[in-house]
Amino acid sequence: MDIVVKGRKTEVPERFRKHVTEKLKLDKIQKIDAKVISLDVEVSKEHNPRQADRCDRVEITLRSRGPVIRAEAAAADPYAALDAATARLEAQLRKRADKSRVHRGGRTPTSVAAATAPLAARLNGEPAAEEALDEGVPTKKIGSLEVQGEGPLVVREKTHAAAAMTLDQALYEMELVGHDFYLFVDSDTKQPSVVYRRHAYDYGVIHLEADPMVAEAPHGAGGALGG
Predict the structure, then answer these.
(1) pLDDT tens, residue by residue, 184-203
(2) How confident is the model at residue 125, as a pLDDT?
(3) What is the pLDDT of residue 14?
(4) Are the CB atoms for 72 and 174 separated by under 8 Å?
(5) Residues 206, 194: contact at Cβ < 8 Å?
(6) 135: which DSSP letter?
(7) Can you count the helices (H) and strands (E) in the chain?
(8) pLDDT tens figures, 12-25
């Protein structure tokens, strides 16, 4: 299998082509996914002076027997963009390989409903089943929640500084990082929002708005993203 490097509205120097071959190590990629069919690298350049810090864009497309994996990044030079895109490609490959190992395993993963049942019971002011059976189980603090015993609940908290942006910019950032959703603050409404991928090239967006009539929402503002 060869790596195909092409330019879109720009010339690709031979030196960069060689660097691509050295950076994208086929033997390493094939160890993660042995069913790789083709690997394409497309280089493009943005001539807008206002975007000088991200004028060079590199998009890597990997085709195998499974779904197509695409990773892209933009930087001030094509080499930095290639480094970032390669890191994202490898992360996506590992993520897919991990999912494949879980599906082939013999153990059925715990459902979200079952895993969060004790938490839901506590939020509703009801004693969880484990608590009713054993009042002596120790309670520990995980993030902002109290978890009893060694339950399956794992909490990871992150806080990010977010500059307000338009919906179009949020869609662009989501595609840039290769995620299926992207949290942002809408510059028009000033509301915390999330844009997400639905089907094919369709997208959805959810805005959060505080309800003054509700002092406390025990169930939060959750909902299925696929709706």
Answers:
(1) 999 988 889 998 888 766 78
(2) 59
(3) 92
(4) no
(5) yes
(6) T
(7) 7, 9
(8) 999 999 999 888 88
What Rg value do the Cα atoms of the chain yield, rounded? 23
* Structure-derived torsion over alpha carbons of residues 42, 73, 184, 187, reported in degrees to the nearest 10: -70
Structure tokens at 90: 């490898």
- Measured distance CA(144)–CA(87) in Å, rounded: 32
Cα–Cα distances (Å) from 24 to 3, 27, 78, 84, in that order, read 9, 9, 14, 12
Place of tokens 């409404």: 189
> The tokens of 105 are what?
């395993």
- 39 vs 29: CA distance, rounded Å: 10
Please report, in angstroms and rounded to a whole number, the separation of the first and last CA atoms in the chain. 40
Strands (E), the chain: 3-8, 36-45, 56-64, 69-75, 139-142, 145-148, 181-185, 192-197, 203-207
Rounded-to-integer distance, Cα 65 and Cα 26, Å: 16
Q: Are 39 and 26 within 8 A, CB to CB?
A: yes
Round the average pLDDT of the chain to a whole number and report it.
Answer: 76
Report the interhelical angle of 14-23 vs 78-104 (nearest 10°). 30
